[in-house]
Design brief:
Blueprint lengths: L1 H15 L7 H7 L4 H12 L3 H19 L4 H7 L5 H12 L6 H4 L23 E6 L3 E10 L5 H13 L2 H6 L9 E8 L2 E9 L7 E4 L3 E9 L2 H19 L8 E7 L10 E8 L4
Antiparallel strand pairs: 1-6, 2-4, 2-5, 3-4, 3-7, 6-8, 7-8
Helix pairs in contact: 3-10
Length: about 280
């Protein structure tokens, strides 16, 4: 419940600073919150990063202001932090697919984002089966990408996965999969203000791919089948909205790990998807 309460409070913070360029890393650290942990939970619950949420909410408020018609276009643009009208028009067109002048006619067709709130629904019957396991740090080999935390969103992870799948790199990686965890691993972690994404396999073999080591941790493992981006999102929402409320263990969201197991391509609806949710050690 504390997790949801904090998210609700932070949404209020975003709403209060909707026109500003929020330094989420700095704000969260001042609040004593690990940015990667917060952004993982926020994205899992809302389907968007806090940066995306703020951008969508800002554009929604702009659309309502345009519809009201009480201020000039240049005044609205400056109020929401745009230095010139042309930049504002371009951003608005990119967001909604129409010019600001067309807003009044098409407001009911726009993809607007209203302020978020959460309904918590604890249930007795689990939606997904789960098991606890301990994993010592292990070596991974794979493909690595690094993103700025401000620009990162989960779509980039699955775009990278699809790219590797389309170019048969996942099949190549599996040739080196002699470690204890079988399948393609998607491993995210926050490092020095950036998000590092590794897609690879557990391996002790020499390979042409980059290598890294995971963290030792206790995990609870959930499994389902489906398109990885949709299946994992649903599991994460289940973890944070339901499972977490009934279990006494604290979630460690400083990194995330998903394992994909498939006889076919790894981006199809036949893919077996595991979410390995890290837990803090019991005291």
């Amino acid at each position: 419940m504390e997790t949801i309460n904090f998210i609700e409070k932070f949404i209020i913070y975003i709403e209060d600073h909707i026109r500003e360029n929020i330094d989420y890393d700095k704000v969260l650290r001042n609040m004593g919150v690990e940015p990667k942990s917060f952004i993982t939970i926020f994205t899992s619950l809302t389907g968007m990063t806090p940066y995306e949420y703020q951008a969508k909410r800002r554009m929604t408020e702009i659309a309502y202001d345009l519809k009201a018609g009480h201020r000039r276009l240049i005044d609205i643009a400056k109020y929401y932090g745009y230095y010139d009208v042309d930049t504002f028009k371009t951003a608005y067109q990119k967001s909604f697919g129409i010019s600001p002048y067309e807003t009044e006619r098409h407001l009911d067709k726009l993809d607007l984002t209203e302020r978020l709130s959460f309904e918590i629904v604890p249930v007795d019957r689990p939606k997904y089966s789960s098991k606890y396991t301990h994993s010592e740090s292990f070596r991974m080999v794979g493909a690595v990408q690094t993103f700025s935390l401000q620009n990162y969103n989960s779509r980039m992870k699955y775009d990278f996965l699809a790219y590797l799948d389309d170019n048969n790199i996942l099949d190549e990686l599996l040739r080196y999969n002699n470690g204890s965890i079988k399948g393609i691993i998607m491993y995210e972690r926050y490092i020095d203000g950036e998000m590092e994404l590794i897609i690879g396999v557990s391996s002790s073999l020499e390979s042409p791919f980059e290598e890294t080591y995971t963290e030792t941790s206790e995990f609870v493992v959930f499994e389902t089948q489906g398109i990885p981006s949709l299946a994992a999102q649903d599991i994460y929402q289940y973890i944070f909205r339901r499972w977490h409320l009934k279990e006494p263990r604290d979630l460690n969201c400083n990194f995330s790990m998903e394992v994909l197991k498939s006889q076919r391509e790894f981006t199809s609806d036949y893919t077996r998807v595991q979410v390995w949710q890290a837990l803090y050690d019991e005291i």
